[in-house]
Amino acid sequence: MLRFGGKPVLLACGATDMRKQINGLSAKVQTDFAMDPFDGALFVFCNRQRNRLKVLEWDGDGFWLYLKRLERGHFRWPEPDGDGMMELSAEEFEVLISGAKLAQKLRRQEIKGGKLF
Prior knowledge:
Helix content is 26%, strand content 26%. By secondary structure, it is α+β, with helices and mostly antiparallel strands. The chain has one domain (9-116). It has a 5-stranded mixed beta sheet with strand order 4-3-2-1-5. The chain has a two-stranded antiparallel sheet with strand order 6-7. The longest helix has 19 residues, at 90-108. The chain is globular and about 35 Å long. 15% of the residues are buried. The model is unreliable at 102-112 (pLDDT under 50).
């Protein structure tokens, strides 16, 4: 799991081309959102199927690019509106990225004949 260290978490609403790597995503941050990727924030992107996300992070002397791919389920991801960027707290981001896991866990619990399976 990522350690946020009080860094702002900025989501790119809508779908992003997951073929983009560090250079492409940092360029997207600069051109599409008029932000500086060197500011120390976590920039989060999701694909169209909402089963993959990438997190771009500047740590002071280089970029980190994290990737998470869900084998089942999908992330609940906001659609674009306004400038297309949304700021989340670390807690909100953790809920967002663990939402698919929670949905799968809830879906597995079935009640049959008054018993929980």
